[in-house]
Structures are given as structure tokens and as C-alpha cells.
Amino acid sequence: METDKKTTDAELARRREVLRALRQIIQAVDLHSRQLLRQHGITGPQLVILQEVAAFGPLTVSQLAKATSLSQGTVTNILMRLEKGELVTRTRSREDKRRVYIDVADKCRDMLATAPSPLHETFVEQFGGLEEWEQEMILSALKRLAAIMEPVPESAAGKKRPGRNSRKRGAGLTADEPESAGILLSPIDRSTDPSE
């Protein structure tokens, strides 16, 4: 019985440490996003979306949501702000009028040429200074963490959560959650099907 209590106490302590580390990461991402907004007039999540569209666009909202591990509602809200700033354009597909493609405006291409990193410079430098195996270990741990934090759909609430061999990727955010909470913590999936 004493062993069970020690194990439980140790596990609870680890959980608290995980939550503390996650809060520190989210706080650092939000702080950097606010600095980007003050200095360059754009947030980190907006910059990531613009860079994704510039590199792989034109893209639909669903493709952007998959590529950035954000909900379609969050991406739509970000795109509305970017469209007001004349940084993105929307074009309706000629083949399927229901489909709308997002592309970067010329004004945006000029801005992206001199844009800062969506990640804090100190992080970029220190992460780049790590051994390759350390970088891979951090990336693997973050991917695993994102997978186990993925919310269970209400219809599957009674079913068993994904196990160790689950291949699910990062958690999507709803439109009510802070847009920067997940965008820089989740890996960007470049395997998005262009037909979506």
C-alpha cells in the first residue's frame, strides 16, 4: 500500500511538472507573438499561415488547417484579419465554385522576404546548437505529447484512448482558444492532400 502511494505521489508530481513546462512554453510563444505584433504588425500564427501559403499555396482553408494543426474556425479567423490587411487573396475555383483558394498578395511577398522567424531567435540559435540526436529527441517528445493531448471526440468518449502506437498528430484548436497555443508546438504536416 505504501508503494502505491509513493508511485501515485511521484506520478502526480510528474504531471504537475509537465503542466508547468507546457505553461512556460505557451507563455513564451504568446510573448514572442506579441513582440512580433508590436515590432512587425503581425502575430506568430499569422506569420506561420502566411509562410505556409507562400511556400505551398494556393491552399484551401481545410488544407491550411491540416498543415498548421489548427481548427478551420481558427484559420478562418486569422485569414479574415490577414485579408483586411490585404496580405492574402481569396479566389473561387473555376471547377468547383464551393472551393475557395487562399494565396498571398504581392504586398505580402515583400513583407515575407524580410520577415522574422515565428520562433524566438534565442530558441532558434540554441536549438540549432544542439546535437542532431538531441533535436530529434525533443521533436519526438513534442510529437508524442501532441498526440496524447489530442482531444477525444464526444462520440468516442466511451472508447479507449489511442495507445502507444497511435500515429495521430497534434491537437487542433477551436476558434475560442488562443491561436498561438498550438501552432508552434505542433509539427507542420506537409503531406496534405492538394485535392482537399
Question: What does it look like?
Answer:
The chain is mainly alpha-helical and 196 residues long. It has a single domain (2-183), classed as Orthogonal Bundle (Arc Repressor Mutant, subunit A), CATH 1.10.10.10. The chain is 57% helix and 5% strand. The chain is built from eight helices and two strands; from the N terminus they run ααααββαααα. It has helices at residues 2-40, 44-56, 61-68, 72-84, 106-113, 121-128, 132-149, 180-183, and strands at residues 88-92, 100-104.
Largest sheet: 2 strands, antiparallel
What's the β-strand tally?
2
Q: Radius of gyration from the CA trace?
A: 19 Å
Strand content: 5-15%
- Please identify, by name, the CATH architecture: Orthogonal Bundle
Sheet with most strands: strand arrangement = 1-2
Q: The CATH topology is what? A: Arc Repressor Mutant, subunit A
Number of helices: 8
- Kindly provide the name of the CATH class: Mainly Alpha
Compute the number of structural domains: 1
First-last Cα distance: 55 Å
CATH superfamily: Winged helix-like DNA-binding domain superfamily/Winged helix DNA-binding domain
Helix content: 55-70%
What is the residue-mean pLDDT, rounded to a whole number?
A: 77
The shape, in one word, is globular
SSE run: HHHHEEHHHH
Structural class of the secondary elements?
mainly alpha
> Any low-confidence stretches, pLDDT <50, length ≥5?
161-196
